[in-house]
């Protein structure tokens, strides 16, 4: 069935706008009416990072009239490899401040505002209310599921994407889609978030910068189709992109009946608390590794991360190898305290849980991981 346009057309275009958007006006699928819809649209972009950067730039260039940028992070030098809305002068600034300045400079037709806030279950609905659609370029599962729930409650479409190393998924969710269209949401694709730390973030796994540019641009294409009622959005389909093989595959996605329960379900009883793992500070560990009877320090990062430096004397077993193997056979001792190390802490905590399940008892996690080691012990090592 034809896809309905999300937004009613705004006022007639000015002479300057006729010139600025001429290449859109020449497209039969957009034309003057579609451009007026874009100028009347209100779009929220969650995340001004790898995906949000190209999405924001192309939303602004397309003439989306009102854009809200939502992010709670600041620009880091490691972001510049892919987050093209920021530049070297932006390092240390909030991503919202940097992105808003860039969008305002790109197109004065755009009324752009920033929300320097981390979206949670408690505030997502308030932050996203009043928008015609939402683009989610966030980098953590807590935010993704909070955004999905809020969009389901508000009845607005959600353009969603995720990138892992050199591959990506992109789709459109809309649990309130008009009759005859697939009313799908994130929970139809992934019913529950993964265990914390079990899926490496790009800071742990790496990511191809050009790929997030490609996918962020595709998110904007989805937004333009939704606003103008043109083409065939990815509603009911997930596009899988493999940049190394230069392939794209469309995967059908059907409603699973989760959404009434997911959005309005009563609070479930809290699961029993897992045993807490003791942490050790970087400075305390530095003293321990120099002392008699030092602990067994086990680095569970990926092999490529080892080039950034290690705690002196530590052994290396990647988390996946540890979880799939026999710790005894891998050489993890039972008669010494084992200190688990990763970049920031989550993977080391998962490694501790794995060892505990095998009967290991003397376990500690380096608090803050190698980033804390760099900050507190050895600043000659690079942060990454």
Features:
384 residues, alpha/beta, Rossmann fold, Oxidized Rhodanese, domain 1, 2 domains, eight-stranded mixed sheet, five-stranded parallel sheet, elongated
Helix content: 25-40%
Mean pLDDT across the residues is 92
Into which percentage range does the β-strand content fall? 15-25%
- Would you give the CATH topology of the largest domain? Rossmann fold
Radius of gyration: 24 Å
- Second CATH tier, the architecture of the largest domain: 3-Layer(aba) Sandwich
Q: Kindly report the name of the CATH homologous superfamily of the largest domain.
A: NAD(P)-binding Rossmann-like Domain
Structural class: alpha/beta
Weakly predicted, low-confidence segments: 264-273
The separation of the N and C termini measures 48 Å
Q: The biggest beta sheet, please?
A: 8 strands, mixed
Order of helices and strands: HHHEHEHEHEHEEHHHEEHEHEEHEHEH
Global shape:
elongated
Biggest β-sheet: strands ordered side by side in the sheet: 3-2-1-4-5-6-7-8
Please identify the top-level CATH class of the largest domain. Alpha Beta
In short:
One of its GO terms (cellular component) is cytosol. With 384 residues, this protein is of the alpha/beta class. 34% of the residues lie in helices and 16% in strands.
What can you see in these coordinates?
The longest helix has 20 residues, at 209-228. This protein is of the alpha/beta class and 384 residues long. It has 15 helices and 13 strands. Residues 264-273 have low confidence and may be disordered. The protein is 34% helix and 16% strand. The protein has helices at residues 15-20, 22-25, 31-40, 52-62, 95-106, 124-128, 141-154, 186-189, 202-205, 209-228, 259-264, 282-289, 319-324, 346-357, 369-376, and strands at residues 42-46, 66-70, 111-115, 133-136, 158-164, 167-173, 237-242, 247-252, 278-280, 296-299, 315-316, 338-341, 363-366. The N and C termini lie far apart (48 Å). It holds the Pfam family ThiF. This is Rhodanese domain-containing protein. Residues 291-382 form the Rhodanese domain. GO terms for molecular function: nucleotidyltransferase activity; sulfotransferase activity; thiosulfate-cyanide sulfurtransferase activity; ubiquitin-like modifier activating enzyme activity.
């Amino acid at each position: 069935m034809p896809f309905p346009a999300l937004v009613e057309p705004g006022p007639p275009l000015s002479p300057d706008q006729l010139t600025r958007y001429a290449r859109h006006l020449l497209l039969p699928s957009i034309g003057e009416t579609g451009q007026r819809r874009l100028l009347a649209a209100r779009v929220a972009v969650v995340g001004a990072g790898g995906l949000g950067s190209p999405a924001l730039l192309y939303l602004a260039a397309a003439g989306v009239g009102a854009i809200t940028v939502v992010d709670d992070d600041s620009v880091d030098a490691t972001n510049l490899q892919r987050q093209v809305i920021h530049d070297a002068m932006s390092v240390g600034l909030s991503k919202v401040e940097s992105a808003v300045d860039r969008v305002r400079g790109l197109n004065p037709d755009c009324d752009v505002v920033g929300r320097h806030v981390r979206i949670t279950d408690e505030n997502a609905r308030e932050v996203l209310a009043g928008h015609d659609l939402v683009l989610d370029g966030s980098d953590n599962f807590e935010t993704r599921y909070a955004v999905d729930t809020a969009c389901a409650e508000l009845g607005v479409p959600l353009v969603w994407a995720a990138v892992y190393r050199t591959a990506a998924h992109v789709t459109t969710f809309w649990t309130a889609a008009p009759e005859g269209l697939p009313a799908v949401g994130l929970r139809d694709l992934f019913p529950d978030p993964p265990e914390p730390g079990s899926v490496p973030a790009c800071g742990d796994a790496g990511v191809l910068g050009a790929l997030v540019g490609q996918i962020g641009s595709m998110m904007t294409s989805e937004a333009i189709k939704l606003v103008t009622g043109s083409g065939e959005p990815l509603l009911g389909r997930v596009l899988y992109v493999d940049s190394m093989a230069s392939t794209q595959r469309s995967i059908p996605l059907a409603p699973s009946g989760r959404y009434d329960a997911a959005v309005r379900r009563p609070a479930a009883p809290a699961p029993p608390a897992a045993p807490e793992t003791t942490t050790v500070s970087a400075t305390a560990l530095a003293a321990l590794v120099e002392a008699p009877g030092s602990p067994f320090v086990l680095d569970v990062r990926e092999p490529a991360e080892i080039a950034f430096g290690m705690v002196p004397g530590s052994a290396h077993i990647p988390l996946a190898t540890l979880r799939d193997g026999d710790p005894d056979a891998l050489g993890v001792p039972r008669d010494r305290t084992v200190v688990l190390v990763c970049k920031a802490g989550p993977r080391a905590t998962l490694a501790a849980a794995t060892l505990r399940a095998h009967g290991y008892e003397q376990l500690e996690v380096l608090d803050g991981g190698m980033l804390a080691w760099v900050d507190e012990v050895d600043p000659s090592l690079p942060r990454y």
